[in-house]
Amino acid sequence: MPPADATPAPAARSPDPHVARWIRRQIAGAPLKAPSLIVTVWGDAIAPHGGAALLPGLIRLLEPFGINERSVRTSVYRLGREGWLESTPVGRQSLYRLRAEGARRFEQAFRRIYSPPSAAWDDSWEVALADGLPAHKRRTLQQELLWEGFGTLGPGVFVRPAQEPSALPRIVAALGVGSRVVAVRARDDDALGARPLAATVAQAWDLADVALGHRRFLREFGAVIERFRERDPATHDPEQCFVVRTLLIHAYRRVLLRDPQLPAALLPLDWPGAAAFTLCRDFYRLTHRAAERHLQGTLRNARDPLPPAVPAFYARFGGLPR
């Protein structure tokens, strides 16, 4: 019989066969594209730890997703050419880190993932008019605005329920188009006898498609979250937790970046967005400790350990247990 003050042995950690089958089905059902997955991994996992990784560590990190070394090398090269990453030689290896523009785009995209949409709305709208821009500039502006929840009412006409702070100043400054875009705040006025902006929701946004994406997300990840709820968190396999957490954010990011996150007053009563956010939050909280252990072990190298996560990481989804 062990002495009363003996330290309990750590719980055994072994891969869950049910989760392993689920992972295989997910990857086989929708094969992952290496560049898109790397964006997810970098934004979700690497950016909070300094935003840099040696290429061999990244190759090991992506191996469980069925991404081979050649695909990783080709993808990081492509992401470098597109302005996301830059490389620095470290001995015979390459250290990749976010460029300033890549960091801005990561922050813009991932900020929406970890925070619930604001419930407050004062019934005002932001309207941006950019019909005078060259076509290529207008397309770039449109893409940036779509990521921030703007809808399109016509060529060069973008609308969104007003939020604080507004994303428009940051976007037009980054693209250098402030002098060519007209932006106003507006409210519906029944006295004018015209159609209100609130009546254009179906025209400006394809909410049916977004709802379909949320419901698919709920079905796919609702089928496996109970396995993590049933087991002691100390027994969760770190690699499985990292893979599932990454697949979770990868899927949620793809749905959420098409979701304008409109105020409840403009949404159908059966809108599934809140349920999708809750599932994503709960699943992330269940897996993040073990996933971080896998990340630390996989990206650790002979020169330096992976830096600890920045405090903002633990503010995700309203707060993560440390």
What does this structure look like?
- This protein is 48% helix and 11% strand.
- It has helices at residues 17-29, 34-46, 55-62, 69-81, 100-113, 135-147, 168-175, 201-204, 207-230, 238-256, 273-299; strands spanning 52-54, 85-90, 93-98, 124-129, 151-154, 157-161, 182-187.
- It has a four-stranded antiparallel beta sheet. Strands 1-3-2 form a three-stranded antiparallel beta sheet.
- Strand 2 and strand 3 form a beta hairpin.
- It is globular, with a radius of gyration of 22 Å.
Question: CATH superfamily membership of the largest domain, which one?
Answer: Winged helix-like DNA-binding domain superfamily/Winged helix DNA-binding domain
- Our estimate of the beta-strand percent is 5-15%
Helix content: 40-55%
Give me the secondary-structure category. alpha+beta
- How would you state the average pLDDT, rounded? 88
CATH architecture verdict of the largest domain: Orthogonal Bundle
Note poorly predicted spans: 1-10
